[in-house]
Amino acid sequence: MKRKHAWILLFAAVSLCACGQQEKMQKAEGVRLEAAKEMQTKMTEKEKEMTQKMKQEAAAREAAEKAAAEKAAAEKAAAEKAAAEKAAAEKAAAEKAAAAQGDFYYTALTDEIKARITGISYPDTAEPLQISYQELAYVHVLHYDFNGNVKEGELVCNQAIARDLTEIFQELYRWKYPIEKIRLVDEYGGNDERSMEDNNTSCFNYRVISGTTRLSNHSYGTAIDINPLYNPYVVTRSDGTTSIQPANGTAYADRNAEFSYKIDHEDLCYRLFTQHGFTWGGDWKNTKDYQHFEKKY
Ligand SMILES: [Zn+2]
Fold first, then answer.
1. What is the pLDDT of residues 192-212, one digit of tens each?
2. What are the domain boundaries of the chain?
């Protein structure tokens, strides 16, 4: 072989070798790229996964928050509903009590009533009375006066007849039965004569029977006097003379005379009180107390 040919051969060999090397390098680069690509894909997937996870967590958190808000709203609504129901129930109870009470009702003596009667119709003495505050009641009624106007009436009576009086006065009111005044005798200083002269209807007054030392049934609150001026208390003495109370009611002692507001057996007052178990003073024998109804208890 010529020297020239040898060189060519060598060059070719080197070239071939270099060429192989390059191919190798290219191959390696390809592998590297492939790995990088794979890694990239893996990372992207992981990122995706993480993003997905974060999204899921956020959604879960949002759902939890929404549920909590809904729960709070539901609890608030329930509390509001309960409060509204409670208020409605209280209102209904108050209305029911007011309706039950109305204008005709009776109660135990309040401190205010005790203060009004103590030392007047209810004596303020060291000795205990035959009746306690607890045995008495306050009665509130409406009535028609002699001019046909509706007036409020107040009575203190024994608890035992409080319901009777409330019902009787309600019925008298329904029939517009005229009663001039129904005030506590305390407004007359506890003076029965003054109360009768003013034609005041009243019940409790701790006092003795006029002309005796015996306690009247008014002392127990179990007797009531209606329109007393027109229905006086007439006592016929053994000598035939009479005493009439109130003094200005003399004209009405004659029960055969015709006049208004007279209580007799046809009168609505008589009918109602006797229906409730009361007796009438107009039926007594020696004395006649036409204004007076009382009930044993
Ligand atoms: Zn009486």
1. 999 999 999 999 999 988 888
2. 105-294
Give the pLDDT band (50/70/90) at residue 8: low
Contact 291, 228 (CB under 8 A): yes
- Separation of 294 CA from ligand 1 center, angstroms? 8
What's at 78, amino acid-wise?
A
pLDDT digits (tens, 9 = 90+) for 100-130: 568 999 999 999 999 999 999 999 998 889 9
Q: Is the pTM above the cut of 0.70? A: no
Nearest to 140 by CA among 126, 124, 128, 157: 157
Q: Rg for the chain (alpha carbons), in Å?
A: 53
How many angstroms separate the alpha carbon of residue 293 from the centre of ligand 1? 7
Distance 215 CA to ligand 1 centre (A): 12
CA of 289 to the centre of ligand 1 (A): 7
Q: How far apart are CA 184 and CA 240, in angstroms?
A: 34
Å from CA of 28 to ligand 1 middle = 133
Q: Dihedral, CA atoms, 164, 271, 278, 199, nearest 10 degrees?
A: 80
| Ligand 1 centroid to residue 60 C-alpha, Å | 87
Residues with CB under 5 A from ligand 1 (ion): 223, 225, 292
Would you state the pLDDT for residue 6?
A: 58
